[in-house]
Amino acid sequence: MKSDILLVGVDGGATKVNCWSINIDESDGFSLGSYQAGKSYFEYSDYDPEFIPVDLKIQLKERETGNIKPTEKEIQQGKTYTRACADSIIEVVKQSSCTKILVGIGMPGLKTENQRGISAMANGPRQISYADNVERFLKKAGVELITPISHIGSDAFYCGLGEEYATAGQFRNVQNSYYLGGGTGAADALKLNGQLVSLDEIKDWFVKAWEMKCPESRSIETYVSSKGIQSLYGEQTGQTLADLNKQAIYPPQIREKALAGDAAAKETLEKVAKYLALLIYERITTLFAGWQGLFEFLNPNRVVPKKSHPYRNFLFDNIIIGQRLGDMLKESKNDHVLWKPFIHFLSMLINEASIIDDSTRLHYCPNGQFSEERIVFSKLREAPALGAGIDAFLSYKE
């Protein structure tokens, strides 16, 4: 045990920051500690609830040309994000008597060249000096880090790190697995041939979930994230997200309404089941035979993935579903509004697929139905925060 170090993992999202201390046990695996703090951005007076992100196409173009120009509104909103992050870390430090502080941070969005800033973000402001600003706030509060924040990681990759290195991680003891987490957005991670694989390093053949567009011209993220599922139900009922939040109608409540016969809720979950199945099917076929063009891309300039890759003919041992999507799917197991339609759609896709062979079909669909044992649920309450801290610790050791 490394009890002389306070290891802190930060999961930064589009609406809030969660921060945890992390227990270090290299022999048995990492686990959440007893110190925790979190801040919602709306708690800060300078937070703009009406903030609209710069068009993603403009963000990507500026990023590609190396000429990123955050707007004044982005700069102002970004101060809220970094202040919330620093304040959360400070609260966790105050709960501990440790003086050796090591911090890892995960945030959505594409990172700057030095990996310490955010150069493109779909649901928030660009923050090209994110780590610098967090460190400045920490120093002002008297919190000294044993080493600077080396980089801001991907919340999706950190979910994978958590599943691999945490004591209760579901990547442990399998060779090939796909992780899909559905929270504010969609987070996906891969373990192939016994090793975690960075999706940024295999982007020439594997596409992140948020990049893919469904036939309904929405990102697949809409159908697998908590906020997206809310928005779908809102469209069906003529309500905004703010309306639904005020009534505390989130995906679990939408499922309850569907079970009670609410037509809009039932239609919403049918779409979730359909596109979740299509996404899992895309992962299965891409791993086995390469990109098949099942989805279009949100970025029309995205390079078409290759069909060839080093892992062709590999099969997944399991599919891990995590975060709020995992909670809802686990709760729905064997129900007729989400679980059974999901299994039905996935089974149908695999049974009718010409791109896979019979042995692969049998692997996933013994007796003609997708093996429910291959769907497992994450046991990690805070996988991204765990992964962020683990990454900081592993980087510090190098």
Count up the helices: 13
Provide the helix percentage. 25-40%
User: Overall mean pLDDT score?
Assistant: 93
What is the CATH C level class of the largest domain, in words? Alpha Beta
Order of helices and strands: EEEHHEEEHEHEEEEHHHHHEEHHHEH
Strand content: 15-25%
Distance between the termini: 18 Å
Tell me the structural class. Answer: alpha/beta
- Which strands sit side by side, in order, in the main sheet? 3-2-1-4-7
Main beta-sheet strand count, sense and barrel state: 5 strands, mixed
Q: What is the annotated CATH architecture of the largest domain?
A: 2-Layer Sandwich
Could you characterize what this model shows?
By secondary structure, the chain is of the alpha/beta class. The protein has 2 domains: 5-156 and 383-397, ATPase, nucleotide binding domain (Nucleotidyltransferase, domain 5, 2-Layer Sandwich); 173-377, Nucleotidyltransferase, domain 5 (2-Layer Sandwich), CATH 3.30.420.40. It has helices at 56-65, 72-95, 130-140, 155-165, 221-224, 226-237, 241-246, 251-259, 263-289, 323-331, 339-352, 358-364, 383-397; strands spanning 5-12, 16-23, 31-40, 100-107, 110-111, 118-120, 152-154, 177-182, 186-192, 195-197, 212-213, 296-297, 318-322, 375-377. Strands 3-2-1-4-7 form a 5-stranded mixed beta sheet. The protein has a 5-stranded mixed beta sheet with strand order 10-9-8-13-14. Strand 8 (177-182) and strand 9 form a beta hairpin. The longest helix has 27 residues, at 263-289. The protein starts with a strand and ends with a helix. The model has no long low-confidence stretch (mean pLDDT 93).
